[in-house]
Write a structure and sequence with these properties.
Shape: rod-shaped
Order of helices and strands: HHHHH
Largest sheet: none
Radius of gyration: 33 Å
Structural class: mainly alpha
Number of strands: 0
């Protein structure tokens, strides 16, 4: 009495063998056509340069160079405009990008960990399948022995 089960492997298992976790930096390769890839690469490079604290310090210095002339104008409107457009925008932009870069690295680490966890779970599931096959074989052997004994006892009783 064989066990009535046939393993049907999910197609994703085969796909995973050729894939690695998706990283933020890999997205520069994504796009349709040469110009889409070029734009992604240029945008990423600029983001990596502007998204540093050194860029924030440089932008703060540039903004502070115009502060004396803005103050000497005596116009409250010009001071408010300088603070909002010259200082805040120039300095906050790279600081925000730094934060986003840190978040992207954290997302990449989470992605890598999730990928490794999924790979481990897949490995464990395969081990469980091997274990179940071995158990099925042993159960079939035991059932065969029981059937043999049952047939032998029925044969001797008649």
């Amino acid at each position: 009495m064989p066990v009535d089960y046939a393993h049907n492997q999910h197609p994703r298992i085969e796909e995973r063998k050729f894939e690695k976790p998706i990283k933020v930096r890999d997205q520069a390769q994504v796009g349709e056509g040469f110009f889409a890839r070029l734009n992604a690469k240029v945008g990423l490079k600029i983001t990596l340069v502007v998204g540093t604290m050194w860029a924030a310090y440089a932008f703060a210095l540039i903004a502070l160079l115009s502060l004396p002339s803005t103050i000497s104008s005596g116009s409250l409107f010009e001071i408010v405009v300088w603070i909002s457009s010259s200082f805040l925008q120039l300095v906050l932009l790279p600081i925000i990008i730094v934060g986003q870069n840190i978040q992207a690295r954290a997302a990449d680490k989470r992605s890598e960990a999730t990928y490794k966890d999924a790979d481990a779970v897949l490995h464990e599931a395969r081990e469980i399948q091997k274990h179940l096959k071995a158990q099925d074989a042993e159960i079939e052997r035991i059932l065969g022995l029981l059937n043999d004994r049952l047939n032998a006892s029925e044969g001797s009783a008649s």
